[in-house]
Amino acid sequence: MKTLNLSLEHSKLPLYLKISNALRAAIINSHVAPSEQLPSARMLAEQLSVNRHTVMAAYHELGAQGWVKTQQRQGYSVVATLPIHQSLAKSAEQHLSCTQHQWRLSKSNQSTFAQPAHHYPFNFAGGNPDIELFPFNEFRGYINEALSRPSIQELHYGGNSGFAPLIEQVTTYLRRVRSITDKEIIIVNGTQEALYVVAQTLLTTGDKVAVESLGYRPAWSALKSAGAQLIGVNQTDQGIDVSHLETLFKQHKIRLLYLTPLHQYPTTTTLPVAQRMQVYRLAQQYNVPIIEDDYDHEFHYDSQPLAPMAANDPSRLVIYLSSFSKIMFPGSRLGIIAVDKTLATHLVNYRTIVNHKVSVVLQDAVARWMKDGAFERHLRKTTRTYHKRRQCMVVQLNILQTQGIDLTFDIPAGGMALWVNVGHNAEKIAQLAKDNGIYLMAESSFHLDRANNQDKFIRLGFAGQTEEKIIQGLQKLKPFLNPR
Ligand SMILES: Cc1ncc(COP(=O)(O)O)c(C=O)c1O
């Protein structure tokens, strides 16, 4: 052990006893654990500006009391079993004079984290990328470069909208691959931070926000944390129901619209061009900004993905969000806001309340990774793999159909999951699956208003696990599905 903070009492006791009392208090209060090494006499003497022999006398005293063990050449350590009666008596004494503080919570988040999906042997969570596919060795090289040739100026506070070389890479990438131009880029710690900052900046208590009626709960939490009242927009099998949206715009003063148009979360349908244009015109007419959450853009298989709504935004009302959580892994905590200049500064300023910036070392490494082209290589590889996994899951589900299992589904053009109609009892199926080591989610988890639950759909993610696992997992799931 290097340093142990000790406070010596003010008394007339000899110095070595004051030191031994302070050491004993540190042991009783668990500042140092049983069997843990204690600082050497020399080190402690230096720290306390006393003679080394005084510290040795203190250790000797503690040895005699049974708190400390001395070993030749290994110095001093706490005994493995503390003189327990004394320590219990002492802690009881302490508890009598000090009751546990009760926190007064002014806000709390009700959402609970159940057992994470990746703890299940078969993981059909809808949005999980396969982290095994990430090129860790290759990326280590870029981290090393970022640390060997750091941009020292950038490591200070400031530059809050993001690391300039990464902004440059992202700007080029979004222009080239997603046709987004004329937007300011802000680098954030994932989409969740973006949603929180946008909500806090644009909304006030009681503001109405339109959201897809089956949707992404973490976004709803961020919106609600800013006081928003959420209003669900009905969905058709092609995404949101535009005529219902229009009715809502007429009936309410809607302040914001949150959408996942490319791969609707959780149903994975793509909102067709005609509907996108209608939604956009309504947003212009009723002066409603749109948050476009484009969380897994690249994973589109049958054709090029549609350009985001942000790519054709003459009124500059689209707040475009993108994430590295699927491209890299959720723990990367890296995301992008692309937005009009007039809003960008406000978002950056607000973000500074919760976080100054995103890790510069990470941003630097990702910028190098993108510049080298290795990022796009990785994307091509994962898209090919996920395409095959989608096919594998489709084949397996078709086999289950031929074996008399009640299920129907559309093959989505992209995304990382299938939205499968199992007829009825979807929630029970999801629970039975979990009890048997298979993670999947039922429709009920995604409804804004749970009263709308038809209990028919389950979401089966295909990207996050190998074809072998998909096949085995679906076989294991078979007995819990409904017969036709
Ligand atoms: C709809 C949606 N948006 C965004 C994200 C990514 O969020 P983050 O960047 O905070 O990890 C996800 C990930 O599951 C998602 O499903």
Describe this structure in words.
The structure is a single chain. This protein is of the alpha/beta class and 484 residues long. The protein is 41% helix and 14% strand. The chain contains 15 helices and 17 strands. It has helices at 15-28, 41-48, 52-65, 84-96, 136-148, 164-178, 190-202, 217-225, 242-251, 273-285, 341-354, 360-371, 374-402, 426-435, 467-477, and strands at residues 68-71, 75-78, 122-123, 184-188, 208-212, 229-233, 235-236, 239-240, 254-259, 290-293, 318-323, 335-339, 408-409, 417-421, 438-439, 441-442, 457-461. Strands 4-12-11-10-9-5-6 form a 7-stranded mixed β-sheet, sandwiched between helices. It has a 4-stranded antiparallel β-sheet with strand order 13-14-17-16, covered by helices on one side. The chain has a two-stranded antiparallel ribbon with strand order 1-2. The longest helix has 29 residues, at 374-402. The protein is globular and about 85 Å long. It starts with 14 loop residues before the first helix and ends in a 7-residue tail after the last helix. Pyridoxal-5'-phosphate is lined by residues 127, 190-192, 216, 260, 265, 293, 295, 323, 325, 330, 335.
